[in-house]
Design brief:
HAD family hydrolase; Rossmann fold; hydrolase; HAD_sf; hydrolase activity; single chain; 10 helices; alpha/beta; 8 strands
Length: 233
């Protein structure tokens, strides 16, 4: 079967769709870069009186800088996460929508699917983006990063299990659409279907190895999922 056929089969048997945010919905750091936000978090760590190790200094993923802050305990990790949330809200105001993401959400709603967001970004940032683009009402629960608990970020199952509980659906009736290895790992760990969004060169194989049952590849990958949903009406 083609990828769109496999995706249509998975989406057809799923009552709930769990969407990762950064990637499948928008490019969170497409307006304000991830390195800029990482620098903000490193500055906060120094302000609190700690040195930033050489291994963390060049890190461009703010989630990894937050993980380091967690090793410093409270109140440091709380203060860094608070600063991170403010930076994320600034970033999503400039974030570019992923092509066909909004169309996918609307098509899924038309197909009577329940939708939730499961993200390592903060729920406040996700909420701000969805409101800005007038699609908040189409989406149910938003399960973002647990405050000051980066240990609960994906691939930990906390966000997926929380979303399933709030949707009132079992794992076998849900699919997770994500663009990272950890998204597919958590789908395998929790028993939900995994559809990988391979929006960059080389991602397809990484996502497949991590457990993706179908791949939507390329910058127009979400358009494939819009097509797949149209097949299940």
């Amino acid at each position: 079967m083609s990828e769109v056929q496999v995706a249509a089969e998975i989406l057809g048997r799923s009552r709930a769709i769990l969407l990762d945010f950064d990637g499948p919905v928008c490019g969170v750091f497409s307006g304000i870069t991830d390195m800029t936000v990482s620098d903000v978090l490193r500055e906060e760590i120094r302000r609190l009186g700690f040195e930033v190790p050489a291994a963390v200094e060049p890190q461009n993923d703010p989630l990894e800088v937050l993980r380091f802050a967690a090793t410093l305990g409270d109140p440091t990790v709380t203060a860094v996460d608070d600063r991170f949330r403010l930076a994320e809200i600034e970033a999503v105001a400039l974030a570019a929508p992923t092509p066909y993401a909004i169309e996918f959400v609307r098509a899924a709603v038309a197909a009577s699917k329940k939708i939730a967001i499961v993200s390592n970004n903060s729920a406040e940032a996700v909420e701000a983006y969805l409101e800005r683009h007038q699609i908040r009402s189409a989406i149910g629960p938003i399960v973002g990063r647990a405050h000051a608990r980066p240990d609960l970020m994906k691939p930990h199952p906390w966000s997926v299990l929380s979303a399933l509980d709030r949707l009132g659906e079992p794992a076998e009736a849900a699919v997770l659409v994500g663009d990272s290895r950890t998204d597919m790992e958590v789908s395998v760990a929790t028993g939900v279907w995994g559809i990988g969004f391979a929006n960059k060169e080389g991602k397809s194989e990484v996502l497949r190895r991590a457990g993706a049952a179908a791949i939507a590849s390329g910058p127009r990958g979400m358009a494939l999922l819009v097509e797949a949903v149209s097949w299940i009406h």
